[in-house]
Amino acid sequence: MNHDDGNNDRSRRRRLDDAARGDTPDRWTQGPEVAPRAKHEALAGRPGDSDETLRERQRLAQIEMMDRWIGGVLTEQRRTRRWKLFFRLLLLSVVVALVSLVVHRVYFAEPSGAAPAQEHLALVEVHGVIASDAPANAERIIQGLNRAWEADSAAAVVLHIDSPGGSPVQSQRVYAEIMRLREQGDKPIIAVIEDIGASGAYYIASAADEIVASPASLVGSIGVIYAGFGFQEAIDRLGVERRVMTAGENKAFLDPFQPLDESSAAFWQTVLAQTHRQFIEDVQAGRGDRLADDETLFSGLVWSGEQAIELGLIDELGSLEQLARARVGKAVWEDYTPSLDPFDRLTRRFTSAAAALLGIEVSHSPLRFEAR
């Protein structure tokens, strides 16, 4: 190998090293453009060139092509690494933001306990179905009631209700807490019904000192309901065998795949009647002699606000804004309902979905104080 070949090899290695470090420009897009004919002549050689010279030219052309290919590959790798780094930083930013939000909600979102200095209405929201696994659950409502009750600048505690009812037990727990606070006589407790305050929601409202509703609000539905289906014929037609084992002859008497006999139906009706009696007695204790002497009052019917005031189910027609102006001179209130824990809600939903998927029965009471 002559001196020129050594120089050429060193030059090629230097170009490869520069391309690996990214120090050389991309030959695919930069540098002087070579016309197709010139390229062909460079590969074909010139007249009089020896075979060895032609082979050397072809070898150099191949090496140059390889240089360009390696340079392109390295450029694409650098570009890919940059995008990977960008997306990793983006993902890290999202994770940090979510963690910060959760920490803020858990440790800093709750009020510090200092009520607003100006006089106001202390609101506690009762929205949606009343149930242990719903936002309107007894624990959350009771916690809000006590926080509102302890606020010195609160002119009144207001239960802001928009609910069709729900669990008898959850409703009874809230009712008992309102009656306990009401007996202390420190400040009035007022229920304001929006679109609907029926069944279990009215059960809660009846414990308040006063009930306010709009003329078109739906109020009442003082009754108890159990609803189910009978699939015994359907399961026979499908050829499915139902396997239920119990200890206790009546343990599965509400099984929808078995017929409900007369004795079981009669027993279940006594449970409904007893729960209904509890409902009636508590409403009477809360409303007193304001209730009209009407035999349909506890029949489960639901009335408009305009009808309800004639029956003594509510005390006044109005809205939250009107109540605030009458009590504190302007429409000002503060929400004392505890904020919802996002992880708790996610866990509850996941548990319910998993139970439904696995066919596991949840432990909710089949009885409902709910408008249908």
Automatic annotation (TrEMBL):
Positions of the UniProt region annotated as Disordered: 1-53
InterPro entries (UniProt xref): ClpP/crotonase-like_dom_sf, Pept_S49_SppA, Peptidase_S49, S49_SppA_C
Record field: transmembrane: 85-108
UniProt domain Peptidase S49: residue ranges: 184-325
Keyword Repeat: no
Keywords for this protein: Hydrolase, Membrane, Protease, Serine protease, Transmembrane, Transmembrane helix
Ranges in a coiled coil: none
CDD domains found in the cross-reference section: S49_Sppa_N_C
Stretches with biased composition (Basic and acidic residues): 1-26, 36-53
Pfam families (alphabetical): Peptidase_S49
Keyword Transmembrane attributed: yes
Family recorded in the similarity comment: Belongs to the peptidase S49 family.
NCBIfam families: SppA_dom (TIGR00706)
Protein name, UniProt field: Signal peptide peptidase SppA
Organism: Vreelandella malpeensis
Record gene name: sppA
